[in-house]
From TrEMBL, chains A, B:
GO terms for biological process: L-histidine biosynthetic process. The gene is hisD. It comes from Sphingomonas carotinifaciens. NAD(+) binds at Y128, Q189, N212. Pathway: Amino-acid biosynthesis; L-histidine biosynthesis; L-histidine from 5-phospho-alpha-D-ribose 1-diphosphate: step 9/9. The keyword Oxidoreductase applies. Substrate binds at S235, Q257, H260, H326, D359, E413, H418. PROSITE patterns: HISOL_DEHYDROGENASE (PS00611). This is Histidinol dehydrogenase. CDD domains: Histidinol_dh (cd06572). It holds the Pfam family Histidinol_dh. Binds 1 zinc ion per subunit. Zn(2+) binds at Q257, H260, D359, H418. Its EC number is 1.1.1.23.
Length: 430, 430
C-alpha cells in the first residue's frame, strides 16, 4: 500500500493502519477457555489429551520431560560457529539485563518514620517457547536470561514438539540459559499447566514468552492467576528513512518483519517519493529470493505500507499513533527524531542498525509490546520476574505525628476500626 | 477460626485458608462481558443506560462531568482538621512516590554499541474511585499522585454517584491531587468507557483503582486493550504478634481489615495460646462497638483465623504461603522476621505501626496485590504509569562485530530476510 500525507483520504487510510485488527477473535477466546478449564479441572490427563490431539504425539511414549542431559548434548553438538553465536547472544543479553536490576531502598524521614521498598524474585517462572515453524532459540534466551538475572529459583520451559520432534537449537539454548525443567507441551494447554499446575508439572508464578493467537489469548485469560509479560499480538516494524539510504537495505528491513507471519505489519515513512518507488521495487525483487517468500508476500500485500511525508519530522506524530513494537530511524542524525518519539517498544538508530540485530545479539529484549501497546507497556525485563514489597515502621513518637490525621481520615471514610487501631495506641479518647 | 500448628488436620485447614476462593464467579464474568461489549459498540448511550439502571440517575439531568470548580469548592469547604489531614497524606504520598521515578540509562559498550533505555509517562490514565459504601478519598490520592509524579498529562477519574449524590471528600481529594476530568460513572461501564472511549469520554492508556467484583473483573477483561495496575480482589491482613502486645491493639488491627467487606480475611499468628484467647475475646468485645459491626462480624466469622505456632519463626513460611496484601509484625525485633519474608504486598514493622497508618498517611501505596498475588505482583507505583523504550545504535564497525553472529542465528532460525538485512550492510556474500 502506498500512501501520501498530501493526498485526500490519507487520514482515513492511516486510521485503518492504526486500527488494523490483527488479534485473536472470539472463537479463539472460546476454544482457549475450554482448554484452560479442562487443564484446571483434570490436570495432566487433559494436557496429555490435548497434546495427542494437537501435537500428534503421546506423552506417555515420548516422555513428558526433555532431560537436562539431552539439552547439554544438543549444546555440545552444535557446530562451532552457531554455538559461538549463541554464546555471544547470551552474554550480551545477560549484560544488558543486569543493568535493570532494581535497588532496594530504605530511609527514615523527618517525622521519624522508617520507609522503603524491597525487591525479591518470584519463586518460579514459566517460559513459553514456540515450536514448529517458529521454533526460536533466541526467544528462549530473551525470556530465560532476565528470569535468571532476577534470581528466579525455578525456571520451567514448555515447548511443543509436534509429532514428537525436538529442535536441537532450542534445547541447546535451554542448556545455555540454565533452564531447570523442560516439558514437551505447547499451546493453551501448556499455559494452563504452568498457571494452575498439572500433576507432575508444579504451577509457576509468572508466565512469559511469545506464541500464536491461542497462546496469547491463554496468557490473557490466566492473567491474575499468574503474572504475565504482556499480551503479545502480531509483530510490527516502522522504518523512518531518507533518500540517502540504500533501498535494498531498507527493503530487507521491511521484509525481516514480513517474513515472520502473514499478519505482521511493515511500514516505511520516507520524505522522498522516488526513494519510496525504489524500496517498493526492491521489496518485490527480494521476495522471490527468500525461502520465506510466501509468508513475506502475503504480509507485505496485506499489511505493508510506504508513506510519503513532506519531511521526516512530520512522520513522528504518526509514528506515535502507531506506537510500533520496532522503530528503525535510518538518517544521519537519528537522535533528533528519536527525541520526538513517545511510544515505541524498541528503537534502532542509524543506517547500520537493522532491527534483526536486536532480535539476536544486541542485548535489549526482543519480547516487546505489539498492537499499539507501547502506549502503556514495556519490553520484557528483569522487573517482570520480581516484585516489590513496601515497608514502614513507626515509633511511638512518629505515630504521634501521623496518628491524628489517620484517625480523622478513617472516621471521615466511615471506618471506625481503622481509627481505633491508631487511637488505642495513642490513648486518644475516641 | 482457631487453629494450632500442632493439631491433627492443621495442614488441610491451613490449605483451605490459602485457597479460599473469594473472587468473582463466572456469572460476574458474563455480566461484565455483556456490559463491556455494549459500551465498546454503543459508546456513551450504553454508559448512560447502565448508569440509569445501576446508579439510579440520568446523566442527561445530573450532568456527565463534575466540574473542577465543584472539586475546588469541596476542598475549600472541608473542615480545617480534615483538610490538613488530606494535605499531609498527599504530601507524604508524593514524597514516597517521587523516589520511585526510574532513571534513563545510556552507555556505549566495548563493541562500540550504543545501548540504553528511556522511560516516558503514558499519555492518559483513568482512575477508578469507588462510590457508595466505599467512597474513599484516600484511594483517589493513592492512584492519582503516582500518575502525576510519573508525568501523566491527562488524568481522568470516574466515580459513581448513586442516586446522583456526590461525595464532598472525594471531590476535595480530586482537587488536591490535580485530577483533570471527573466523570460521574462507575461499575464495569466506567471501565469500558475508559478503555474504549465513549463519545465525550476519550479513551485512556492505563486504568487503575480498586472496585467491587464487577470493576475488578472488568479491569481483567480490558487488560491488553489498556494497562491495568493489578486484578484486585478482597483485602487481607496477616498479623504476627507475640504475647507482649496489648490484645486490644491487635484485635483492632484485625478488625480494621474485617470492617472493609464481608469477604476480607484477617489472620493472626501468635506463639502464645493465652494471648490468642485474649485477642479473640477482645475482637468479640470490640465488634459491637463499631458502626461497621455487621460487616466486621461477618468477615471475622467467615474468614478470620487465629493460628498458634510454637515460635514466630515457624509462622514465616506459612506467611509466605499466604503472600498477604498486608503483613504486620508486632514484635520487639520485627526486622529479624521481616528478613525471612519473600511474599507480601506491604509490611508494617513494630508495635506502633498499625496497618491503618499505611492506608492513609505513611506514604507507600495502599493499592496492593491481593489474593496471594504478592507472589508475583507489586503495589501500585509510578512505574505503572510509565513505560520503557529500549534503544540501540550501531556503527559500521560495531555491526562488523555483531553482524556475523546475527546472520548465523537468523539462518538457523529459518529467517533469511533477517540475515539479509545484516549481510547487505556488511557486503557479505549470502
Amino acid at each position: 500500500m502506498r500512501l501520501d500525507v498530501g493526498e485526500a483520504g490519507f487520514a482515513a487510510q492511516f486510521e485503518a493502519l492504526v486500527d488494523a485488527r490483527r488479534e485473536a477473535d472470539a472463537d479463539v477466546a472460546r476454544d482457549v477457555a475450554t482448554i484452560l478449564r479442562a487443564v484446571r479441572d483434570e490436570g495432566e490427563a487433559a494436557v496429555a489429551a490435548f497434546t495427542r490431539k494437537l501435537d500428534g504425539h503421546d506423552l506417555a511414549e515420548t516422555g513428558w520431560r526433555i532431560e537436562p542431559a539431552d539439552c547439554r548434548a544438543a549444546y555440545e553438538g552444535l557446530e562451532p560457529e552457531l554455538r559461538a553465536a549463541l554464546d555471544l547472544a547470551a552474554a550480551r543479553i545477560r549484560t544488558y539485563h543486569e543493568k535493570q536490576k532494581p535497588e532496594d531502598s530504605e530511609w527514615v524521614d523527618e517525622a521519624g518514620v522508617r520507609l522503603g521498598a524491597r525487591w525479591r524474585p518470584v519463586d518460579a517462572a514459566g517460559l513459553y517457547v514456540p515450536g514448529g515453524r517458529a521454533a526460536y532459540p533466541s526467544s528462549l534466551l530473551m525470556n530465560a536470561i532476565p528470569a535468571k538475572v532476577a534470581g528466579v529459583g525455578r525456571l520451567v520451559m514448555t515447548v511443543p514438539t509436534p509429532g514428537g520432534q525436538t529442535n536441537a537449537l532450542v534445547l541447546a539454548a535451554a542448556h545455555l540459559a540454565g533452564v531447570d525443567e523442560v516439558w514437551r507441551i505447547g499451546g493453551a494447554q501448556a499455559i494452563g499447566a504452568l498457571a494452575y499446575g498439572a500433576g507432575r508439572i508444579a504451577r509457576v508464578d509468572v508466565v512469559t514468552g511469545p506464541g500464536n493467537a491461542w497462546v496469547a489469548e491463554a496468557k490473557r485469560q490466566v492473567y491474575g492467576v499468574v503474572g504475565i509479560d504482556m499480551v503479545a499480538g502480531p509483530s510490527e516494524i516502522v522504518v523512518v528513512a531518507d533518500a540517502k539510504n540504500d533501498p535494498e537495505w531498507i527493503a530487507a528491513d521491511l521484509l525481516s518483519q514480513a517474513e515472520h507471519d502473514t499478519v505482521t505489519q511493515s511500514i516505511l515513512f520516507t520524505d522522498d517519493a522516488g526513494f519510496a518507488d525504489k524500496v517498493a521495487e526492491a521489496v518485490d525483487r527480494q521476495i522471490p529470493e527468500l525461502a520465506t517468500a510466501t509468508v513475506a508476500r502475503a504480509a507485505w500485500d496485506a499489511n505493508g505500507a510506504i508513506i510519503v511525508v513532506p519531511t521526516l519530522d512530520e512522520a513522528m506524530p504518526l509514528v506515535d499513533r502507531l506506537a510500533p513494537e520496532h522503530l528503525q530511524i535510518a538518517t544521519d542524525d537519528p537522535q533528533a527524531l528519536f527525541d520526538r518519539v513517545r511510544h515505541a517498544g524498541s528503537v534502532f538508530l542509524g543506517r547500520y542498525t537493522p532491527e534483526a540485530i536486536g532480535d539476536y545479539v544486541a542485548g535489549p529484549n526482543h519480547v516487546l509490546p505489539t498492537g499499539r501497546r507501547a502506549r502503556f507497556a514495556s519490553g520484557l525485563s528483569v522487573l517482570d520476574f520480581m516484585k516489590r514489597t513496601s515497608f514502614l515502621g513507626l515509633t511511638e513518637e512518629s505515630l504521634k505525628v501521623l496518628g491524628p490525621a489517620t484517625v480523622a481520615l478513617a472516621e471521615a471514610e466511615g471506618l471506625p476500626a481503622h481509627a481505633r487501631s491508631v487511637a488505642l495506641r495513642l490513648r486518644l479518647n475516641r
